[in-house]
Structure formats: C-alpha cells, structure tokens
Amino acid sequence: MTLQAQEAPVDDHQVPVFGRVLLKLSGEALMGDRDYGLDPRTIDALADELVEIHGLGLELAVVVGAGNIYRGMAAAAEGMDRATADYAGMLATVLNSLVVQDALERRGAQTRVLSALAVSEVAEPYIRRRAIRHLEKRRIVIFAGGTGNPFLTTDTAAALRALEIGAEAILMAKNAVDGVYSGDPRSDPDARLLPTLTHREAIERGLRVMDTEALSLSRDNGLPIYVFELADRSIRRVVLGERVGTIISTPGATR
C-alpha cells in the first residue's frame, strides 16, 4: 500500500503510549509502487506522519535500510566480496537517511543524521551520548551507516541503537506486509497473522521477522518489537496504543 500525503487534524489530547521509540524502515518502504529507488510522494507522506507523531511529544529515532538501492547479500551472491558489498549497502543507507532528513526539515522538524561511517560533510559521527542529547532536545535522530561493520544488517543496527538510546520499543514498518504470519502468505493459503509472538518463537520457527542477531539482542534485553505495514497513519496508530500487526515480546522480561 502506498502512503499518500494528506492533511490530517491533530488531536492534541492524544498521548503516545511510549516516551521514546526507534522506527525501523526498510529501504523498500521508500519505493512506493516503484521497482527500485525513491518515490517522492511516499517519502512526503511518511515525513508528514513522522512530524505529526513527534509533535505529540514522542522522542523519535529512525533507522533506514537500503534495499531500495543496494543489497550487500545479493551483490555477494553475484560474486562480489561480501565485506565490500556490505560497505556499499551502508553507504546507501546514508543516501536514504539524507532524503528522509530533507523531507522532515522541509516540514519544520529539527533533525540530526548520525552515521556509523565517517561522512563528516553530511552527517555527525555516531556517539551514543550525543544521540540521546539530541533526542532530549526534541530532535528526530536518524541513524545511518548500519553498525559500521560488514556482515551485520540494518535490523541488527536497529536493535543495537534502540538498546543504546534506551528506546521502549522497536517499530518495524514493513512494505506490503501487515504483520508476522505463520507461513508465507504468498505461497501458503493457510498462513495466518500472528497477533502476538515471543522472541524465542520467532527465532525457533524461522519466521524471518528480523535477523537472528537482532531478535536475540531484543530478547536478551526485553525489548518489544511491533511489526506492521507502512500504510496510511499506521505508525500513529501504533504509537497511540492501537493493536496493529504483530507484537513480539518476552513475557516477564524487564530492561
């Protein structure tokens, strides 16, 4: 489903159920209906919604993938050196982050891009305390460059950064996927949406919600993950406490 930019009334009496979250966006979520690249209308609609929910008092950090531009794993499968391919993918996340930053700032938001790779002309270096301070100053923080290390994906970067900044949850906005299913709904007619799931179940059943490393980090630190489709106002609905998609958590876990 393609996001559409729209003017929506803001109810100032609505209060987010989170104080600080990390939003993980796949690179594909920025494509809209395109086969690759960036769709300006989708990005504009996304920026509208992020500025709106940030205005409700939420502290917001974002990690953007690069699947719309470059996939290290796919390039490695074609014979490219895996480490080199992953670095190229990390650079692609910087490009996506700058595009999202520009869209947010055109709407009056204060933002900072913090990169795990050194690109000082366009982004600050990632420093944990600096990131937290930006959030406290009501800036939207965009983490670029993955973890800065090859062989790790932006899913792992999202889990790591969420834990480092003390986020209360990871919000995983997927492209054309409205949650976690018991099987692949494209090939399994009996596949059903799972409204709740534990981290261990997601790992053991190989449901491919996130990388195993990211799920393990989240499980070990009691970090819940909300998986839902990036559709009109879906991020706002999750932030305000509505049950959307799938919640992955470990009962009794505390951080």
Description:
With 255 residues, the chain is of the alpha/beta class. It has a single domain (20-248), classed as Acetylglutamate kinase-like (Carbamate kinase, 3-Layer(aba) Sandwich). It is 34% helix and 17% strand. It is built from eight helices and eleven strands. The protein has helices spanning 40-54, 72-77, 82-105, 128-136, 154-165, 199-204, 212-220, 234-239; strands at 20-25, 59-64, 111-115, 124-125, 140-144, 170-174, 180-181, 193-194, 196-197, 225-229, 246-248. The protein has a nine-stranded mixed β-sheet, sandwiched between helices. Helix 1 (40-54) links the parallel strand 1 and strand 2. Helix 5 (154-165) packs parallel to helix 7. The longest helix has 24 residues, at 82-105. It is globular, with a radius of gyration of 17 Å. The model is unreliable at 5-11 (pLDDT under 50).
Features:
two-stranded antiparallel ribbon, 34% helix, globular, Carbamate kinase, 255 residues, alpha/beta, single chain
How are the SSEs placed, and which strands pair?
Elements: E1 20-25, H1 40-54, E2 59-64, H2 72-77, H3 82-105, E3 111-115, E4 124-125, H4 128-136, E5 140-144, H5 154-165, E6 170-174, E7 180-181, E8 193-194, E9 196-197, H6 199-204, H7 212-220, E10 225-229, H8 234-239, E11 246-248
Parallel strand pairs: 1-2, 1-6, 2-5, 3-4, 3-5, 6-10, 9-11
Antiparallel strand pairs: 7-8, 10-11
Helix pairs in contact: 1-3, 5-7
